[in-house]
Amino acid sequence: MFKKKIISISSFIFAYFTIFSIINVVYGENVYSDSFSEELTMKNLSETEILAVFNFTQTMDLKEDNKITSYYQLFPRAIGQIVEKYHVKEFHITFTRGSWNSYQWGLNTLPVPVGVEFYAYFDANYDTNENWSGLANAISGVFCASVNYIDRSKSAKPNYSFKPSGSYNEEEKIEMRYGSLSHEGVCTENLTPWIKLLPCQSKMGIAGLLNNYKLFDTNYYSMMAHLIPVCIDSECKHKQLQLTQIISTVFDNKRISKNGNKSWSTESLFGKKISSYCPVSTNSKIKIELNDSDGENNYRLIQSPSRFESSTKDTKYAVYDLISKRYDNLNIGVNIINEKNIQPIQKNIGLEVYRSQSGFAEEYGGFVVTMKNNNIDKDLSITYFDIIPWFVNIYFNSFKIQNTKVKDYQNDQYVNEFYYEPAIEHVNPTILEMKMIIPRDSTTTIEFDFDKKHLLYADYPPDCARGFDVGSAVVTVHNITLGEGYLYPTEDFIRIYTEPIVIILPAPDFSMPYNVITYSCTIIALFFGSMYNAYTRRYIPLVVEKEEKEKGKNETQKIPPPKDSISATEKEEKDKDK
């Protein structure tokens, strides 16, 4: 019954788009085709950790003037309208929870910082600052995130670190803005609207494996969306909009497996099996990356693949094509026979980057950035980019760049470009950007000091005792060759992000106003009550009778009243006389 329901849904979707295209042709309208593809790649990062990367790509043809068409078939209308309204050429947004362990997992082919990273390119013929603010608010609404907090005081315009990933002709002028929120949390409220941008959402296809409970019970989770223009012809006069949605997550099989077995499958990782592919997808496949040197004596595939594809000399993929070969309740994975011989290939470029905080107390501090080139026969050309918030006052005269091999390192031979923009309070942050060369087998250190500002009480967040966040620094490594697994394999650079830093600023005692108000109100209440009681009370003389025994007789002695007072008996006699 379930299979019949899937077939009926597929037939309905196919018929809908067929009729829609025929109507456009009959009425003389240009038919703008949309396409969709889905792919899942899995591999072992270590003996117990498995990487799963979901990749969903949608494309939409643009008009001859590179404007967005009003006909939406597969491409999400919400994204298209935002791009058109704010004159966006391309944008990139990532949501990440956890840190990538490069020592055990190797180089991250999809490098992202902790929290939220957001940058975009705009048409330079319009007001970029206004469009940047509008885009941040719109994207915040689409993904249910706090991207709208990336205002001008948290954003910058990099000069050397970032290059556009899209295709542009010489006539187009673009301008970029960059911002990040390292403390932004990632939750299911961000994943749900992200899934709704897919044509089949999570009802059919590979996206049906996206289980909220399983995805957020992992060591690392990253969710991203990249929108770029792609040229169709050689002159780049006709373009497409390409929206790529990626989820990269690392499962800990040691925690998932009940019997301690290192084998894994889609059912054990996601709690689901694959029922069918998305009917509107032109490409739907699942790939398992295998180390060719391991051999079949160390592992067994649970399900026979459609084919094998060779990637590099030591790597091959077991490919499961969901369109060419129909699978019913597909459960794929790897049964590991000899755990000790499983040695995943770890890619690395030989560069280690650290950033730490120096100083003491809550008044002075400093940053120390260490970049170590482990390559014995290769110099690395890099760009260092850092955004430091305005509440940290940088001492530029304390800036030092040193190298363990080169004494006079601060010359044009090694530091090619240097850009520094001081901060303006509540307006823009401090921007530091350098193009430099790190000699082979050496360590370069960047140091500078800063003051921690005393802020106005309104500038402190509710959790000021936790500290203030400084986002990750970006190190871009140039002139390297990327392979399969990267988002854009044709690019010749890759980024490395440092860990974010939390700075403790001097903060007032926010409990003091409460204590003062409580103490003052108590004093006023006591004083006011006593004075009010004293001024409003009416005093009436009180006659007291005292019995005394004298000489065995009972006598009653009356206390004489005051001279100005009158007894009750005398008052009655006077009233009778009157």
TrEMBL record:
The keyword Ligase does not apply. Keywords: Membrane, Transmembrane, Transmembrane helix. Residues 546-578 are annotated as: Disordered. Residues 546-556, 569-578 have a biased composition (Basic and acidic residues). GO terms for cellular component: GPI-anchor transamidase complex. GO terms for biological process: attachment of GPI anchor to protein. The chain crosses the membrane at residues 7-27, 516-535. InterPro entries: PIG-T (IPR007245). This is Gpi16 subunit, GPI transamidase component.
